[in-house]
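Subject: Sanity check before I submit

Could someone independently write out the structure tokens for this chain? I want to compare against mine line by line before I put it in a report. The sequence has 64 residues.
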Amino acid sequence: MSREELIYCIEKFIDKNDISIKNTQRIEVLLDDLNSEEEIIESMFLILALYVLKVMSTCMVKMK
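---
Independent answer below. Compare away.
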């Protein structure tokens, strides 16, 4: 259940449906719980990194 909940929380964050501190803290806790499943964590970090790059690109375009 933790894996599905983690995916759900991250999707809500990425879709900007829930960018609250509570949700981000929940993501952190779930990542800690899945610490032994390194492949899943690496995938999640990749997803979050791509999201950050997308947001930064959008901000840079708006600044021009």
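---
OP: Matches mine. For the report I'm noting this point. The CA atoms of residues 31 and 41 lie 7 Å apart.
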